[in-house]
Design a protein that fits this description.
about 240 residues, mainly beta, four-stranded antiparallel sheet, about 0% helix
Length: about 240
């Protein structure tokens, strides 16, 4: 299914052939969708989660009708809202950085937590992934030329300044051997950082856009693909 939120406050459901799915009954919301639409299943029930730009969250069934009604809001800044699925609804939540720079968590049972953070900059960028590969997601911030990472208890895991301004949201990579890395993009260079906080050998490399890592030639060698200065670069990773 292709579930797409549009500026008319509607969310549309299409099949892989581009045809509207029959039986879809989504009622127009008070605001358009804000970023990705999420899906998860618990206890043989499907949940489709749609954060809205006004901070409300729609949680619907497969047919578009309401599954849950959440009264609390999650007001994100310009960054994405992320979903963490737990073993039950009370442990499943959306997380974002709110407009005050605090970490805001909205659980599927309507409980809300706000974790106060230090005063962040207006150009704050936020991601939510497992930095140290311990099966628990961490809070990843970048602003100006600094990268900071905290665990779920707000313990600082990483804090480093780079030579140039960080221009993109920090990236997350999980390799075929299950090792994990943070990808960082500055004005003219890209970095790959391991779970020990060390910059990988051979980095930084020339690049200025978000990048991807995959075995694009099926030759058991990982390739990194990035753009820079009107060119596309492909690097081989050892």
């Amino acid at each position: 299914r292709l579930i797409i939120g549009c500026s008319d406050n509607m969310v549309y459901n299409y099949n892989i052939n581009g045809n509207r799915v029959e039986g879809w009954d989504y009622a127009s919301a008070d605001s358009p969708a804000n970023g990705p639409v999420w899906h998860f299943a618990l206890s043989n029930k499907d949940y489709i989660v749609i954060p809205l730009k006004n901070g409300q969250v729609k949680v619907i069934q497969r047919n578009g009708k309401d599954r849950l009604k959440l009264e609390n809001k999650i007001l994100a800044n310009n960054n994405q809202v992320y979903l963490k699925v737990g073993s039950e609804l009370s442990k499943t939540y959306l997380v974002a950085v709110d407009t005050s720079g605090n970490i805001s968590k909205l659980f599927m049972n309507n409980k809300k937590e706000v974790l106060a953070s230090e005063q962040m900059k207006n150009d704050l960028q936020f991601n939510f992934f497992d930095f140290n590969n311990n099966n628990s997601k961490d809070y990843v911030f970048s602003y100006e030329n600094r990268l900071r990472i905290y665990d779920s208890d707000k313990k600082e895991l990483y804090n480093k300044e780079f030579e140039a301004t960080i221009t993109q949201v920090p990236l997350f990579f999980k390799m075929p051997d299950n090792s994990t890395y943070v990808g960082l993009v500055t004005e003219n260079q890209i970095y790959l950082i391991n779970t020990n906080g060390e910059i990988e050998d051979g980095f930084p490399l020339a690049g200025s856009t978000p990048f991807n890592i995959a075995d694009i030639n099926n030759d058991k060698t990982l390739n990194l693909v990035v753009a820079h200065d009107k060119m596309i670069y492909t690097y081989n990773l050892k």
